[in-house]
Automatic annotation (TrEMBL):
Protein name, entry field: 3-ketoacyl-CoA synthase
Protein keywords: Acyltransferase, Signal, Transferase
Similarity-based family: Belongs to the thiolase-like superfamily. Chalcone/stilbene synthases family.
Catalysed reactions, semicolon-separated: a very-long-chain acyl-CoA + malonyl-CoA + H(+) = a very-long-chain 3-oxoacyl-CoA + CO2 + CoA
Organismal lineage: Eukaryota, Viridiplantae, Streptophyta, Embryophyta, Tracheophyta
Enzyme class: transferase
Gene: LOC107932934
EC number in record: 2.3.1.-
Length: 466
């Protein structure tokens, strides 16, 4: 009888054991951010109106029309006077960069931000199991991840990945790598390092689609410490809920809208095409289709379906279609499942477009606008400056959800949702100046100083000497 009972219970015990193992393994696959550190370069690298004017005048390939174009672009860019540039710009050698210039720019960031991060977290470099580095526009063997390993004397069995050419959405691609490695290994530390190399990538020509990048991109970076160790979850800041990547590289129009190339006489620059907004909208819409069911409550999804069906039914009697232009409204109340929106600071138009599509308020867009104004477009690291602004403003409370949205060359749109594990209020890179934001106005003084260019006559215009 006892043997019969045991045999009867054995399958049930095996099922319970498998369920317990599945739950236990699932818990070890979680991805937490323990801490992160954004980079603030030294004050002697700060870019003001005067300095910008000097740099532009050094380019002898520009004429009056290019000056007018640059003035219009920088005035409407949303960028302020306290962003940062690489040291090569201040020595006047932007047209003749060396490999050492690019390496120096990266090493200043690595040694500052990674050092601060690990020290504050109480984690030794020797404890790091996984290192993922993304810097799109520099490749210098040994790779940047190897340079970090050498500087911090990390373990010889560390798993490292070095990403290049992935564009402004690369930090979420790096995060996806970390997340997938965590699925196979338990109790690990990962270090994610994201930045961009501007030193060797200044465009010295006069192609408007390529000189525009000179106006938008600025120096920056972020180091992020992650773990899947469930015993550390109460020390964590954020828990990753989901991540969605959308890639439109198969579309020629999307692929070519944002690309590094040579101009007509062989000068290398970063081309931003007129069809970029269209490519961004397409990838954004496709990304939203996938991530929306993952992050919004069922009630909101049902409401959206009902409203959509009613609208479709009402349009059936119409014989004429209406063409849609510009940003498209999602029609879904994202605030039903998201508390904060971390938007890539690709430019004022990018922020405005996402704000319109998701029906966000100025309060929601403030972190992205302030980050663009203070730090500019720091490429893949910009999301983390936006996140740090929210933290410095003490907006991030336990249980809140943060949606990150980024765009990048390829063309790509990547997004992810974080859950805040505990109340956060550290200032990070904003610590010493958060009380000054938002300022009364985001207007920069470029028009006030250089507006006279608009009245110049092309027939007798000469490049000003001072």
């Amino acid at each position: 009888m006892e043997l019969f009972s045991f045999l009867l219970l054995l399958p049930i015990l095996l099922v319970l054991l498998k369920i317990w193992k599945w739950v236990n393994d699932k818990r070890d696959q979680e991805c937490y951010i323990l801490d992160y550190q954004c980079y603030k370069p030294a004050d002697d690298r700060m870019v003001g109106t005067e300095f910008c004017g000097e740099v532009i005048k050094r380019n002898k390939n520009l004429g009056l029309n290019e000056y007018k174009f640059l003035l219009k672009a920088i005035v409407s860019s949303g960028i302020g006077e306290k962003t940062y540039a690489p040291r090569i710009m201040f020595s006047g050698r932007e047209e003749t960069p060396t490999l050492a210039d690019g390496i120096l720019e990266m090493e200043e960031f690595f040694q500052d931000s990674i050092g601060k991060l690990l020290s504050r977290a109480g984690v030794s470099p020797h404890e790091i199991d996984l290192l993922v580095v993304n810097v799109s526009m520099i490749t210098a063997p040994p790779c940047l991840s190897s340079r970090i390993i050498n500087h911090y004397k990390m373990r010889q069995d560390i798993k490292c990945f070095n990403l290049t050419g992935m564009g402004c959405s690369a930090s979420l691609i790096s995060l996806d790598i970390v997340r997938n490695v965590f699925k196979s290994y338990k109790n690990k530390y990962a270090l994610l390092v994201t930045s961009e190399s501007l030193s060797p990538n200044w465009y010295a020509g006069n192609d408007r689609s390529m000189i525009l990048a000179n106006c938008l991109f600025r120096s920056g970076g972020c180091a992020i410490l992650l773990t899947n160790n469930k015993s550390l979850k109460h020390q964590a800041m954020f828990k990753l809920k989901c991540l969605v990547r959308t890639h439109h590289g198969a579309r020629d129009e999307s692929y070519n809208c944002c690309i590094q190339r040579e101009d007509e006489i062989g000068r290398v620059g970063f081309y931003l095409g007129k069809n970029l907004p269209k490519a961004a909208t397409r990838s954004f819409v496709d990304n939203l289709r996938v991530i929306t069911p993952k992050i919004l409550p069922v009630t909101e999804l049902v409401r959206f379906m009902v409203v959509s069906l009613v609208k479709k039914w009402n349009r059936r009697g119409s014989t004429k279609g209406t063409a849609t232009q510009g940003p498209i409204k999602a029609g879904v109340n994202f605030k039903s499942g998201v508390d904060h929106f971390c938007i890539h600071t690709g430019g004022k138009a990018v922020i405005d477009g996402i704000g319109f599509s998701l029906d966000l308020t100025e309060y929601d867009l403030e972190p992205a606008r302030m980050t663009l104004h203070r730090f500019g477009n720091t490429s893949a690291s910009s999301l983390w400056y936006v996140l740090a602004y929210m933290e410095a403003k003490k907006r991030l409370k336990k249980g809140d959800k943060v949606l990150m949205i980024s765009f990048g060359a390829g063309f790509k749109c990547n997004s992810c949702l974080w859950e805040i594990v505990r109340d956060l209020e550290d200032g990070n890179v904003w610590k010493d100046e958060i009380q000054n934001y938002p300022p009364k106005t985001l207007a920069n003084p470029y028009m006030e100083k250089y507006g006279w260019i608009q009245d110049e006559d092309p027939s007798n215009f000469k490049i000003p000497e001072d």
